[in-house]
Write a structure and sequence with these properties.
- This protein has two domains: about 25-155, no CATH class; about 165-263, no CATH class.
- The chain contains one helix and 21 strands.
- The chain has one helix spanning about 1-25, and strands spanning about 25-35, 40-55, 60-65, 70-75, 80-85, 100-105, 110-125, 130-135, 140, 145-150, 155-165, 165-170, 175-180, 185-190, 195-200, 205-215, 220, 225-230, 235-240, 245-255, 260.
- It has a 21-stranded mixed beta sheet that branches.
- The protein is globular.
Length: about 260
């Protein structure tokens, strides 16, 4: 009897926990008309956002909001869809403000996102992408035409299926991992304070490279080895060209490792 009673109490606790978890979050499912090359922007505190491109002239927002999120403030004009995750105004305890969202957008959309502590993913979008984040992974996959990503403690992962026209990637304590082709007329910069920077580029890339570190190493599979910037300091620098030049690539790292690889 004692074991049976304990089992019943345990099951009851689990059921109540599941009910409480369901009561603490609510689902969202909203759709808005949008132009094929319009702008979709979002501002949030925490959670995750996954942008997925599709061939509809609509923005569809699905996912869950935690109980300390009041709701979504969405303003849509067709040309621009602005999404803001609004907090419940209360002085009781800290706010986590989690929103777990998946946003389908026309594939040619311009994406803008600002987050404090959220993972941000962009997939199957071929418009420009602009992201600012404090903490949380940033991942871009697909054939975006332009990208600017700035983070503090986040890793930046980019896999481009087509030539990127221009790109600017900055992080303080995260790593940067880029795999893709560069437009011969493009300008690209990669900056990290303490994280590593890895570029994986096609063997037929045409670009001019300017790489510099203060105390990190530089591994170069695309050309000549790096040289020390001084007789006593740990810094290294590297300048070289691939193919006929064209694209300009600047890489700076304070203490992170820089790797230039081919595929």
């Amino acid at each position: 009897m004692n074991k049976t009673r304990k089992l019943i109490i345990l099951v009851a606790i689990l059921v109540l926990a599941c009910v409480a978890a369901e009561a603490g979050s609510r689902e969202v499912n909203e759709t808005y008309p949008a132009e094929p090359d319009g702008t979709v922007s979002i501002e949030l505190i925490a959670g995750s956002v996954r942008f997925v491109g599709w061939e509809r002239d609509e923005v569809q927002i699905t996912g869950t909001l935690e109980d300390d999120v009041e709701g979504l403030d969405v303003q849509s004009t067709g040309k621009r869809t602005m999404i803001e995750v609004e907090l419940v105004h209360s002085g009781h305890g800290p706010h986590h403000a989690n929103a777990e969202l998946e946003i389908h957008v026309p594939s040619g959309s311009r994406i803008e996102a600002e987050a404090v502590s959220a993972d941000l993913d962009v997939e199957a979008v071929h418009g420009p992408v602009f992201i600012e984040s404090v903490n949380g992974r940033v991942r871009i996959q697909g054939d975006v035409t332009e990208a600017e990503v700035s983070t503090v403690a986040s890793s930046i992962l980019v896999e481009s299926d087509t030539e990127l026209r221009s790109g600017q990637f900055e992080t303080v304590a995260g790593k940067i991992d880029f795999r893709g082709a560069l437009s011969p007329n493009g300008r690209f910069s990669f900056e990290s304070l303490s994280g590593s920077v890895t570029l994986r580029l096609p063997s037929g890339t045409s670009a001019e490279f300017d790489v510099e570190t203060f105390s990190g190493d530089i591994d170069n599979e695309l050309g000549p080895p790096a040289e020390r910037t001084g007789d006593y300091g740990p810094g290294k620098s590297l300048e070289f060209s691939m193919g006929s030049g064209g694209a300009r690539v600047s890489i700076e790292s304070f203490s992170g490792h820089v790797r230039l690889l081919s595929y």
